[in-house]
Amino acid sequence: MAGAPDERGPGPAAGEQLQQQHVGCQVFPERLAQGKPQQGFLSSFFTNNQKCQLMLLQTLETNPYVKLLLDAMKHSGCAVNRERHFSCEDCNGNVSGGFDASVSQIVLCQNNICNQAHMNRVVTHELIHAFDHCRAHVDWFTNVRHLACSEVRAANLSGDCSLLNEIFRLHFGLKRHHQTCVRDRAIRSILAVRNISKEVAQKAVDEVFESCFNDHEPFGRIPHNKTYARYAHRDFQNRDRYYSNI
Ligand SMILES: [Zn+2]
Protein backbone atom coordinates (compact mmCIF):
# COMPACT_ATOMS: atom_id res chain seq x y z
CA MET A 1 0.00 0.00 0.00
CA ALA A 2 2.22 2.72 1.31
CA GLY A 3 5.05 1.78 -0.99
CA ALA A 4 2.97 1.77 -4.14
CA PRO A 5 1.96 5.33 -4.90
CA ASP A 6 1.52 4.47 -8.55
CA GLU A 7 -1.57 2.46 -7.75
CA ARG A 8 -3.31 5.56 -6.51
CA GLY A 9 -3.76 7.65 -9.55
CA PRO A 10 -6.89 9.74 -9.62
CA GLY A 11 -8.73 7.53 -7.20
CA PRO A 12 -12.22 7.21 -5.97
CA ALA A 13 -11.97 8.83 -2.67
CA ALA A 14 -12.34 11.92 -0.66
CA GLY A 15 -9.95 13.76 1.57
CA GLU A 16 -9.72 16.59 3.98
CA GLN A 17 -7.72 19.71 3.70
CA LEU A 18 -5.97 20.85 6.79
CA GLN A 19 -7.09 24.45 6.81
CA GLN A 20 -10.42 24.90 8.49
CA GLN A 21 -11.50 27.53 6.01
CA HIS A 22 -10.78 25.17 3.19
CA VAL A 23 -11.80 21.69 4.09
CA GLY A 24 -11.91 19.89 0.83
CA CYS A 25 -11.72 16.41 -0.48
CA GLN A 26 -9.10 15.18 -2.79
CA VAL A 27 -9.58 12.26 -5.06
CA PHE A 28 -6.83 10.83 -3.06
CA PRO A 29 -3.95 12.38 -1.20
CA GLU A 30 -0.96 11.45 -3.24
CA ARG A 31 1.23 9.27 -1.14
CA LEU A 32 4.75 10.50 -0.70
CA ALA A 33 7.88 8.48 -1.09
CA GLN A 34 8.92 6.62 2.01
CA GLY A 35 11.99 7.40 4.02
CA LYS A 36 11.68 11.13 4.37
CA PRO A 37 12.96 12.43 7.67
CA GLN A 38 10.21 13.05 10.20
CA GLN A 39 9.64 16.55 11.42
CA GLY A 40 7.51 18.05 14.10
CA PHE A 41 7.37 19.59 17.49
CA LEU A 42 7.39 16.29 19.38
CA SER A 43 9.59 14.46 16.95
CA SER A 44 12.27 13.96 19.56
CA PHE A 45 9.77 11.93 21.60
CA PHE A 46 7.41 10.45 19.03
CA THR A 47 7.54 10.23 15.29
CA ASN A 48 4.62 11.68 13.35
CA ASN A 49 3.58 8.14 12.61
CA GLN A 50 3.52 7.17 16.28
CA LYS A 51 1.55 10.28 17.18
CA CYS A 52 -0.90 9.54 14.41
CA GLN A 53 -1.36 5.96 15.61
CA LEU A 54 -1.89 7.07 19.20
CA MET A 55 -4.45 9.72 18.22
CA LEU A 56 -6.24 7.24 15.98
CA LEU A 57 -6.48 4.74 18.82
CA GLN A 58 -7.91 7.41 21.08
CA THR A 59 -10.44 8.41 18.42
CA LEU A 60 -11.57 4.84 17.79
CA GLU A 61 -12.00 4.09 21.47
CA THR A 62 -13.61 7.26 22.71
CA ASN A 63 -15.24 9.38 20.02
CA PRO A 64 -19.01 8.80 19.95
CA TYR A 65 -19.39 9.69 16.25
CA VAL A 66 -16.72 7.17 15.35
CA LYS A 67 -17.99 4.46 17.70
CA LEU A 68 -21.44 4.70 16.13
CA LEU A 69 -20.03 4.57 12.61
CA LEU A 70 -17.88 1.55 13.48
CA ASP A 71 -20.92 -0.24 14.90
CA ALA A 72 -22.95 0.64 11.84
CA MET A 73 -20.24 -0.59 9.48
CA LYS A 74 -20.06 -3.86 11.38
CA HIS A 75 -23.83 -4.13 11.28
CA SER A 76 -23.73 -3.64 7.50
CA GLY A 77 -21.15 -6.38 7.06
CA CYS A 78 -18.14 -4.08 6.73
CA ALA A 79 -16.35 -4.52 10.04
CA VAL A 80 -13.46 -2.09 10.32
CA ASN A 81 -10.03 -3.28 11.35
CA ARG A 82 -7.64 -0.59 12.53
CA GLU A 83 -4.53 -2.08 11.00
CA ARG A 84 -6.17 -3.08 7.73
CA HIS A 85 -8.40 -0.10 7.08
CA PHE A 86 -6.37 2.86 8.34
CA SER A 87 -3.00 4.08 7.23
CA CYS A 88 -1.01 6.95 8.74
CA GLU A 89 1.12 8.50 6.02
CA ASP A 90 2.75 11.73 4.96
CA CYS A 91 0.71 13.56 2.35
CA ASN A 92 1.32 16.36 -0.09
CA GLY A 93 0.04 19.86 0.45
CA ASN A 94 -2.42 20.45 3.25
CA VAL A 95 -4.54 17.37 2.71
CA SER A 96 -5.38 15.78 6.03
CA GLY A 97 -7.04 12.55 4.97
CA GLY A 98 -8.89 10.55 2.37
CA PHE A 99 -10.89 7.44 1.70
CA ASP A 100 -9.40 5.16 -0.93
CA ALA A 101 -12.41 3.20 -2.15
CA SER A 102 -10.30 1.00 -4.40
CA VAL A 103 -8.83 -0.71 -1.34
CA SER A 104 -11.35 0.40 1.29
CA GLN A 105 -8.75 2.22 3.29
CA ILE A 106 -8.75 5.53 5.11
CA VAL A 107 -5.52 7.49 4.85
CA LEU A 108 -4.66 9.81 7.70
CA CYS A 109 -2.09 12.44 6.83
CA GLN A 110 0.26 12.23 9.78
CA ASN A 111 2.14 15.36 8.74
CA ASN A 112 -1.03 17.48 8.66
CA ILE A 113 -3.32 16.21 11.41
CA CYS A 114 -2.34 18.47 14.23
CA ASN A 115 -4.39 17.47 17.25
CA GLN A 116 -6.93 15.03 18.66
CA ALA A 117 -9.97 17.10 17.69
CA HIS A 118 -8.72 17.29 14.13
CA MET A 119 -8.13 13.53 14.09
CA ASN A 120 -11.67 12.95 15.39
CA ARG A 121 -13.13 15.08 12.61
CA VAL A 122 -11.09 13.54 9.83
CA VAL A 123 -11.81 9.96 10.91
CA THR A 124 -15.53 10.72 11.25
CA HIS A 125 -15.74 12.39 7.85
CA GLU A 126 -13.89 9.60 6.08
CA LEU A 127 -15.86 6.88 7.89
CA ILE A 128 -19.06 8.41 6.50
CA HIS A 129 -17.63 7.93 3.01
CA ALA A 130 -16.63 4.39 3.97
CA PHE A 131 -20.14 3.74 5.33
CA ASP A 132 -21.68 4.98 2.07
CA HIS A 133 -19.25 2.82 0.15
CA CYS A 134 -20.30 -0.18 2.23
CA ARG A 135 -24.03 0.24 2.03
CA ALA A 136 -24.42 1.47 -1.56
CA HIS A 137 -22.83 0.94 -4.91
CA VAL A 138 -21.22 4.33 -5.04
CA ASP A 139 -19.82 5.26 -8.41
CA TRP A 140 -17.08 7.55 -7.12
CA PHE A 141 -15.28 7.86 -10.43
CA THR A 142 -17.86 8.77 -13.02
CA ASN A 143 -21.03 9.86 -11.30
CA VAL A 144 -20.45 13.25 -9.72
CA ARG A 145 -23.88 13.12 -8.08
CA HIS A 146 -22.83 10.05 -6.09
CA LEU A 147 -19.74 11.89 -4.88
CA ALA A 148 -21.85 14.99 -4.18
CA CYS A 149 -24.27 12.99 -2.05
CA SER A 150 -21.56 11.47 0.09
CA GLU A 151 -19.87 14.87 0.52
CA VAL A 152 -23.16 16.45 1.59
CA ARG A 153 -23.66 13.67 4.12
CA ALA A 154 -20.08 13.85 5.40
CA ALA A 155 -20.22 17.63 5.83
CA ASN A 156 -23.67 17.41 7.43
CA LEU A 157 -23.05 14.57 9.85
CA SER A 158 -19.37 14.74 10.79
CA GLY A 159 -19.47 17.95 12.79
CA ASP A 160 -17.52 19.78 10.08
CA CYS A 161 -20.28 22.36 10.13
CA SER A 162 -20.99 22.31 13.83
CA LEU A 163 -21.78 25.67 15.35
CA LEU A 164 -18.46 25.80 17.18
CA ASN A 165 -16.51 25.19 14.01
CA GLU A 166 -18.57 27.79 12.26
CA ILE A 167 -18.00 30.34 14.99
CA PHE A 168 -14.28 29.79 14.63
CA ARG A 169 -14.73 30.56 10.98
CA LEU A 170 -16.67 33.72 11.86
CA HIS A 171 -19.69 32.59 9.93
CA PHE A 172 -22.09 32.80 12.85
CA GLY A 173 -25.19 34.81 12.39
CA LEU A 174 -25.63 33.55 8.88
CA LYS A 175 -29.19 32.45 8.37
CA ARG A 176 -29.46 28.74 7.73
CA HIS A 177 -25.76 28.61 8.36
CA HIS A 178 -25.69 24.85 8.73
CA GLN A 179 -27.23 24.14 5.34
CA THR A 180 -25.13 26.84 3.74
CA CYS A 181 -21.98 25.45 5.31
CA VAL A 182 -22.81 21.90 4.20
CA ARG A 183 -23.53 22.97 0.65
CA ASP A 184 -20.37 25.10 0.40
CA ARG A 185 -18.17 22.40 1.82
CA ALA A 186 -19.57 19.72 -0.42
CA ILE A 187 -18.96 21.92 -3.47
CA ARG A 188 -15.40 22.71 -2.36
CA SER A 189 -14.72 19.04 -1.69
CA ILE A 190 -15.89 18.04 -5.15
CA LEU A 191 -13.86 20.77 -6.81
CA ALA A 192 -10.77 19.58 -4.95
CA VAL A 193 -11.05 16.13 -6.48
CA ARG A 194 -12.75 16.58 -9.83
CA ASN A 195 -11.63 18.66 -12.73
CA ILE A 196 -15.02 20.21 -13.33
CA SER A 197 -16.38 23.73 -13.27
CA LYS A 198 -17.87 25.25 -10.15
CA GLU A 199 -21.22 25.44 -11.92
CA VAL A 200 -21.24 21.70 -12.59
CA ALA A 201 -20.29 20.95 -8.98
CA GLN A 202 -22.99 23.30 -7.68
CA LYS A 203 -25.56 21.72 -9.95
CA ALA A 204 -24.64 18.22 -8.74
CA VAL A 205 -24.88 19.27 -5.10
CA ASP A 206 -28.17 21.10 -5.62
CA GLU A 207 -29.69 18.12 -7.40
CA VAL A 208 -28.94 15.72 -4.56
CA PHE A 209 -29.02 18.15 -1.66
CA GLU A 210 -32.50 17.64 -0.30
CA SER A 211 -32.46 13.86 -0.22
CA CYS A 212 -28.85 13.53 0.91
CA PHE A 213 -29.06 16.30 3.50
CA ASN A 214 -32.07 14.53 4.98
CA ASP A 215 -30.40 11.12 4.96
CA HIS A 216 -29.00 10.94 8.48
CA GLU A 217 -28.01 7.29 8.52
CA PRO A 218 -26.57 5.82 10.61
CA PHE A 219 -27.04 8.66 13.11
CA GLY A 220 -30.80 9.01 12.81
CA ARG A 221 -30.40 12.75 13.38
CA ILE A 222 -27.86 15.47 12.74
CA PRO A 223 -25.37 15.02 15.58
CA HIS A 224 -24.56 18.67 16.28
CA ASN A 225 -22.23 17.80 19.13
CA LYS A 226 -20.81 14.87 21.07
CA THR A 227 -23.86 14.65 23.32
CA TYR A 228 -26.12 14.24 20.29
CA ALA A 229 -23.67 11.69 18.92
CA ARG A 230 -23.77 9.75 22.18
CA TYR A 231 -27.58 9.68 22.12
CA ALA A 232 -27.49 8.60 18.50
CA HIS A 233 -25.06 5.82 19.38
CA ARG A 234 -27.28 4.65 22.21
CA ASP A 235 -30.33 4.69 19.93
CA PHE A 236 -28.45 2.75 17.29
CA GLN A 237 -27.40 0.12 19.82
CA ASN A 238 -30.98 -0.21 21.03
CA ARG A 239 -32.25 -0.46 17.47
CA ASP A 240 -29.64 -3.10 16.76
CA ARG A 241 -30.53 -5.02 19.90
CA TYR A 242 -34.24 -4.81 19.08
CA TYR A 243 -33.81 -6.19 15.59
CA SER A 244 -31.43 -8.92 16.69
CA ASN A 245 -34.05 -10.14 19.17
CA ILE A 246 -36.78 -10.51 16.60
ZN1 LIG B 1 -15.23 14.10 1.93
From TrEMBL:
It comes from the Eukaryota. Its EC number is 3.4.24.-. Keywords: Hydrolase, Metal-binding, Metalloprotease, Protease. One of its GO terms (cellular component) is cytosol. Pfam families: Peptidase_M76. One of its GO terms (biological process) is mitochondrial proton-transporting ATP synthase complex assembly. GO terms for molecular function: metal ion binding; metalloendopeptidase activity. Signal peptide: none annotated. Belongs to the peptidase M76 family. This is Mitochondrial inner membrane protease ATP23. It comes from Tursiops truncatus.
